[in-house]
Each structure stands twice: as C-alpha cells, then as structure tokens.
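ESCALATION

Customer reports they have been waiting on this structure for their group meeting. Please prioritize. Original submission:
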Amino acid sequence: MLSKERIDELVELQANLGYTFRDNLLLNKALTHKSYVNEKSEAIKNNERFEFLGDSILDVVVSHYMVKTFQDFSEGLLSKIRAAVVNESCLAGLAREIHLGQYLLLGRGEELTGGRDKNSILANAFEAVAGAVYFDSNLETAYDVFLPKLKGEIGQYAETSLFRDFKSELQQFAQTNLSCIPHYRVVNETGPDHEKQFEVVVRTNGDEQGKGSGRSKKEAEQAAARNALEHLNPKNPNHGA
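Update from on-call: job pushed to the front of the queue and completed.
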C-alpha cells in the first residue's frame, strides 16, 4: 500500500505526464530504482523490467510516427533518427521536462551522489514509465501520451542535414515519380588544390533540377540533390531544413 503522501506525489507526476493511472502501484514500481530495493528488507521489485518494456514502446511510437510522416525517408535514415531520439541524453531531457527525478525512489548512495539528475537514471526511469503506461492501458494510449513529448525531438533530427542523404532521397523520388535516375555533373572548380570549391548540377530526363557547391564533389552533389528536392517537391515539408 502507498502512503497518502506518496499518492499525492504521484498525482503531481501524473499531471505532468498527462496520464492518470488506474493502478498507482505500476507507476510507483516504474519509479523504483534498484538502489532503493537493495536497501529494503521487504520484497520490492525495481523498475528494470518496465524499463525493458518501455524501450520497445518508445521505439514503436517513434517508428510509427516517422513511417507515416516522412514517406520519402529511407529505412537507414529512419533508423538513425530513431537512435538519436530514443537515447539516454534525449530521454533524460524529456524526463527533466516532467520533473521525473523528484519522484524517484533511490537508495541513500544514489541520493547523496546526485542520482535524481543523472542522465542514465532519468532515461531509464522515463522508459520504465512508458512501460508502465502501456501496461496500465494499451499501445494506442501510450502513443498518445508520449508522441507529443517526442515529436519535437524527431522533427529536430529529421531536419538536420547530418542525418540526411539527399542523393538517395532524390534518386528514390526520381525513380518513383519521374521514372529516371538523376545525373550529376561538375560544372565549375575554383580555388587552389588545398582549398577547392566544386559546383555541381543535377539533371533528370535532361532537365536541370538543382545546383549546389561544396569543398568536395560529394558535398556539392549532396547540396545539388537537396536543391533539386526543394524544386521538385516543394509541398513536402520534409525536404526543407
């Protein structure tokens, strides 16, 4: 049984989370770190099993949203974005947004060494809470609860060129919509050998669709492909960055 004080604490967290548990014991278990269990004589279970479950739940939430939203992204790009979102640093940040750390049950050692603000503990607890929400309800509810929290992170990584292979995206778009393969050509080189600047144009079916420059042919081709995507598919927001 939970004390009234603990129940009141969990009510606060549920308001931050945007979900009300039918079974508060599930949420309490999700917040129970193994260091706390190790110091108790009574049989208490820690949150590691919920953490295992929640990791998969968050993967599904992110994957489902991206497959629906970013229809031109390759499987490899989707995997990179998901890995960037469902990782320790990102999840710890999301945990801080709902003040998760102050509701954790920690052992004395972790308490004294700042465990409530450790990335690893916060990220694991966030996953555990996701697992508890799923266990208390269903996948659809977990999706509705956690997607709004994850969507901003997904969008941020989806829009950064660090994760984008514009040449692959352009090739997929051209094959699907234009029945052709893009062709790239270097049209200009400037600067000394150690500081070359390349200018590349990309054509589909003989028509110039984009132009880009860079310090290498590969970089210039990526820039040209990005420019072509913006030209060919301006209504798709996923090609802007």
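Sent to customer with the following note: DSSP finds eleven helices and three strands in the chain.
Escalation resolved.
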